């Protein structure tokens, strides 16, 4: 009953657009309903109880708007709220933690995986817990990157300041002899150039968006029936300034976003 319905995607801000871009690649016929909680960004420093409430309100809104599969594109809420959402709602709700770990385990050679994320994501230990489920020999090392989300929310992804922040955070993980790095926040793919400049070519980078959208695609196309549609819909909602979101989102994706609407939940 959820296949071929619009895919609902939510994040604290523009970061979830990296998931939207992957949906466009893997599921080109999908309609999108996106919610960016820009009035409350960044999520990283907020307590778990507050994030669970935000995620619940947003999920309820997306389902009310007609979404089928829901992608929690925020690692912070995926870390603390996913179980609550999956228990409360009948819609398939996919987080981004386990898909990232699965990809990293496939790639690592020495079993030492680094994760960069928000304070909430790293503090939760979700990546290490999920890795232990799949392979108890895997070592996961986390590094919180509090400057990253504000940089991306401003579209400031290639500046000296972005490079210096990447150097500060990533160097600490390189000291752990990691050979694989998970971008543990959907904002971070937009900083991939500066992160790669610090890492070099030896360490593989994992963007969980690819595996996350693969899971969504299995549900979206589960009926096997082709879609009969002429125009794909993209609907964007935010809780903060819609003009700022549209401007920064268009800059990051290289594509002019359609109208963005403000909604107070």
Structure description:
The protein has helices spanning 17-26, 48-64, 75-80, 82-88, 97-107, 119-124, 126-134, 148-153, 160-174, 192-199, 209-220, 242-253, and strands at residues 7-11, 32-36, 70-72, 93-94, 112-117, 139-144, 180-184, 204-206, 234-238, 260-262. Helix 1 links the parallel strand 1 and strand 2. Helix content is 45%, strand content 16%. It has 265 residues and is an alpha/beta fold. It has 2 domains: 7-96 and 210-262, Rossmann fold, CATH 3.40.50.1860; 97-208, Rossmann fold, CATH 3.40.50.1860. The mean pLDDT is 94. The protein is globular and about 50 Å long. It is built from 12 helices and 10 strands.
Q: Keywords for this structure?
A:
265 residues; alpha/beta; 4-stranded parallel beta sheet; 16% strand; 10 strands; Rossmann fold; 6-stranded parallel beta sheet
List the helices and strands and how they pair.
Elements lengths: L6 E5 L5 H10 L5 E5 L11 H17 L5 E3 L2 H6 L1 H7 L4 E2 L2 H11 L4 E6 L1 H6 L1 H9 L4 E6 L3 H6 L6 H15 L5 E5 L7 H8 L4 E3 L2 H12 L13 E5 L3 H12 L6 E3 L3
Parallel strand pairs: 1-2, 1-3, 2-9, 3-4, 5-6, 5-7, 7-8, 9-10
Question: Could you tell me the number of beta strands?
Answer: 10
Main sheet: strand order? 4-3-1-2-9-10
β-strand amount: 15-25%
Q: Quaternary state, please?
A: single chain
Number of helices: 12
Biggest β-sheet description: 6 strands, parallel
CATH topology of the largest domain: Rossmann fold
CATH architecture group name of the largest domain: 3-Layer(aba) Sandwich
The level of helicity is 40-55%
């Amino acid at each position: 009953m959820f296949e071929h319905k619009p895919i609902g995607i939510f994040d604290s801000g523009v970061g979830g657009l990296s998931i939207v871009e992957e949906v466009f690649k893997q599921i080109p016929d999908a309609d999108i309903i996106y919610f960016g909680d820009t009035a409350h960004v960044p999520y990283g420093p907020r307590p778990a109880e507050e994030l669970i409430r935000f995620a619940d309100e947003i999920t309820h809104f997306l389902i009310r708007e007609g979404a089928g599969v829901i992608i929690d594109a925020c690692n912070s809420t995926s870390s603390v709220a996913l179980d609550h959402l999956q228990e409360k709602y009948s819609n398939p709700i996919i987080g981004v933690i386990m898909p990232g770990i699965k990809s990293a385990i496939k790639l690592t050679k020495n079993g030492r995986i680094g994760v960069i994320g928000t304070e909430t994501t790293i503090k939760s230990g979700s990546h290490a817990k999920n890795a232990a489920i799949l392979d108890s020999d895997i070592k996961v090392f986390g590094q919180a990157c509090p400057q990253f989300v504000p940089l991306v929310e401003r579209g400031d992804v290639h500046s000296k300041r972005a490079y210096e922040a990447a150097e500060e955070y990533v160097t600490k993980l390189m000291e752990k002899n990691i050979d694989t790095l998970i971008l543990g926040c959907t904002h971070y793919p937009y900083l991939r150039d500066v992160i790669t400049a610090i890492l070099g070519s030896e360490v593989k980078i994992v963007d969980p968006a690819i595996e996350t959208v693969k899971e969504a695609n299995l549900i979206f196309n589960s009926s096997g029936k082709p879609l009969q549609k002429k125009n794909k819909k993209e609907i964007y909602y935010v809780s903060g300034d819609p003009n700022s979101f549209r401007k920064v989102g268009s800059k990051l994706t290289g594509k002019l976003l359609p109208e963005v609407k403000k909604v107070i939940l």
